[in-house]
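Supplementary Methods. Inverse-folding protocol.

Structures were first reduced to a discrete structure-token string of length 219. This string, shown here, constituted the complete conditioning input.
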């Protein structure tokens, strides 16, 4: 992996309720991709131009689902074997499972629209987040902050792009995926609450570019 991700700062040794974080992570899985597999069949009724438009938008979303899956796998190798590290890992795996469901559903729909699903890359550059102080891989806590920033941006992206879709069923599906990304961000913030950090689970009434600074937690 890229050297810029490597930092040998001491890992956080604070402990908190692992069960609480696991249960919070499990709750985020309720809003999954259930029912979205039928979208591929319904999307075929759209015009060729609309299908091309929607395939391109969903392929962009698929790219970021690939990135999220990779990021969670990469970050997992940097977590400690402490209670904190194990709890962060449990939440990460729960969130990653949702991203895998999103990936599979989006790939199927892109194919049904006549497009070619974008493939995953061997690695992704997250250095901009680290340089901005929105997470790192030098401690369990900072790994969680990095995951939070990624989930916030995913929720913002879905909210921004879903309105560009032409197929009503896909608009509903994109919105539902966006809510799951937002729930991931809320679950991660809940983890910090369990650590004793004085923050709100939901820091703003909206999740958007304008409120992004309220959702992310700086290193």
């Amino acid at each position: 992996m890229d050297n810029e991700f490597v930092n040998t700062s001491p890992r956080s040794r604070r402990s908190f309720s692992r069960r609480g974080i696991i249960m919070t992570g499990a709750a985020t899985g309720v809003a999954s991709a259930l029912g979205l597999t039928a979208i591929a069949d319904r999307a075929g009724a759209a015009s060729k131009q609309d299908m091309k438009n929607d395939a391109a938008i969903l392929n962009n979303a698929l790219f970021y689902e690939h990135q999220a899956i990779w990021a969670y796998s990469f970050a997992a190798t940097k977590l400690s074997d402490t209670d904190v590290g194990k709890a962060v890992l449990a939440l990460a795996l729960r969130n990653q499972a949702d991203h895998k469901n999103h990936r599979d559903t989006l790939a199927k729909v892109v194919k049904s629209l006549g497009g070619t699903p974008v493939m995953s890359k061997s690695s992704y550059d997250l250095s901009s987040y680290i340089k901005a102080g929105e997470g790192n891989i030098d401690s369990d806590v900072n790994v969680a902050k990095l995951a939070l920033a990624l989930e916030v941006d995913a929720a913002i992206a879905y909210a921004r792009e879903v309105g560009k879709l032409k197929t009503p069923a896909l608009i509903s599906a994109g919105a539902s995926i966006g809510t799951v990304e937002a729930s991931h961000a809320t679950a991660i913030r809940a983890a910090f609450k369990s650590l004793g950090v004085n923050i709100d689970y939901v820091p703003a009434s909206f999740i958007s570019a304008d409120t992004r600074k309220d959702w992310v937690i700086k290193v």
